[in-house]
Design a protein that fits this description.
With about 140 residues, this protein is mainly α. Helices cover about 50% and strands about 5% of the residues. The chain has 2 domains: about 1-80, no CATH class; about 80-140, no CATH class. Strands 1-2 form a two-stranded antiparallel ribbon.
């Protein structure tokens, strides 16, 4: 989520925008109410709109490896990578009855080839449902 931006639409409509960094286009990713509550509790930056930043909101943080190392140290854990979190989220969703194509869309995977030309649905309502399901499972764990 390094490109996560908290524009006015985020706070008023609970619609997060992940702007394109480098190439491509930005994406709107539905989040659960639990995720919004956590993000809304975070301090807002004066200089910019990025939520995860080391520069007062002006730019997204860029050194994910260094940040991950600090997280491992702070949590006294080791042997896992950020993609393990994605894999776990996908597995939880699949195990809880979310169809694989919704899980793939939730994880940000794009359709390939001719299929991508003809199937244009963005799965926003389904991704919102998946986010709520994932939050429910995680809330039961924590």
């Amino acid at each position: 989520m390094p490109g996560f931006s908290a524009k006015t639409s985020f706070y008023e409509n609970r619609i997060p925008l992940f702007p394109a960094l480098g190439i491509g286009i930005g994406a709107i990713m539905p989040l659960s109410d639990l995720a919004f509550d956590v993000l809304e509790a975070m301090p807002r930056w004066v200089a910019g709109d990025f939520v995860f930043t080391t520069q007062g909101g002006e730019k997204p943080f860029g050194n994910v490896g260094k940040t991950h190392a600090k997280l491992l140290e702070a949590t006294a854990t080791s042997g896992w990578h950020r993609h393990d979190v994605r894999r776990t989220a996908g597995t939880i969703l699949q195990r809880n009855g979310i169809p694989w194509e919704i899980v793939a869309a939730f994880l940000g995977h794009k359709l390939q080839g001719v299929t991508a030309i003809y199937l244009r649905h963005d799965y926003a309502p389904e991704k919102r449902e998946a986010a709520a399901k994932l939050a429910s499972v995680v809330a039961g764990i924590i």
